[in-house]
Write a structure and sequence with these properties.
Blueprint (H helix, E strand, L loop, with lengths): L17 H16 L2 E9 L6 E10 L2 E10 L19 H13 L7 E4 L9 E5 L7 H6 L4 H18 L15 H15 L4 H11 L9 E3 L8 E4 L2 E5 L6 E3 L2 H8 L17 H12 L5 H28 L6 H7 L3 H11 L4
Antiparallel strand pairs: 1-2, 2-3, 3-5, 4-5, 6-9, 7-8
Amino acid sequence: MATADTIAHGASAAPGDPDSFASLLRAAVARHLGAPGTPHDLQRLTGGATKATWAFDAECGGTRMPLIMQTTNAGAASIPAAIDGLTPHLTAEEDAQVMRAAERVGVPAPHVHALLEPADGLGHGYITGRVPGETIGTRILREERYAAARSAMAAQCGTILALVHTIDPREAPFLKDQDAAAQVAAYRRYVDHYRLRLPAVEMGLRWAADRIPSKPRRAVLHGDFRMGNIIVGEEGVRCVLDWEIAQIGDPMQDLGWLCVKTWRFGGRNPVGGFGAREDLFAAYEKASGVAIDPAQVLFWEAFGDVKWAIMCLFKAMAFSDGTEPLSLEQAAIGRRIEEPLLDFLNLIEGRD
């Protein structure tokens, strides 16, 4: 399930022959979902460097189905060996398996209709349903039609995350298991690789290393649960997208990441710009039966600021590494290293 007009997943280069691509797509849809499989209104969506995403309708067994196809971008360059594998990243097949597991426990995850096969000639990927709605944070936070949604979303997110954390890890044995100490070490290696010695980055990593949560719970995490990765309608959250960095870890990581200031898109409220921490925590506790320690969530929110700063660094340096061609997106993200570092300093000093 994904929305044709708002999703911003990665995209690879389109096949040179559009007619040939449409023919392959028709045959794949017919094979997996039902003949004739004829695609209509085929639209490539915008995004980054790791996926190609297409929205379309297809005729399947007398029914017109709104669909999304995502494929791995086989043309993307490899991550440098020194830092490859430090953080989670799923294959298309693993991504689909996690989404199916999430849907089984009641999470509004994309419904996977089919995994692509070699015979389809389209690469590694999957076909999901498509859900209408909005993902652009500034629209959700500012437009009047989403006013009711904004008042409900903090509680909805708490309930959804409680469900995510009930996924049986045995359904996804490939997930990377990283506690807070392992993550701090991984992001330290990113910084060492690029030899960036910003005082605020050093302070952030040391701050996190000195405050590792003791004996946290372990659960399946979404890993990137935030504004921008959820489809929103006028009633609230409709679908949770982008499961490609799902992992095993401290469940409070998901709650803290949702509160990182970058993902508030200018909104004044700490939960995604739209809600209060108290509403998020209360709904999570009610749905999970687990009491939340706000200090533990604060750790993950503050470390989330530091992580995002280092991710911006990674994006900025991708051109020099040969990982990605120079792009406007790369430059725009790369220049933001200082912003989340300021957010981190403000947060640990009590200025939210």
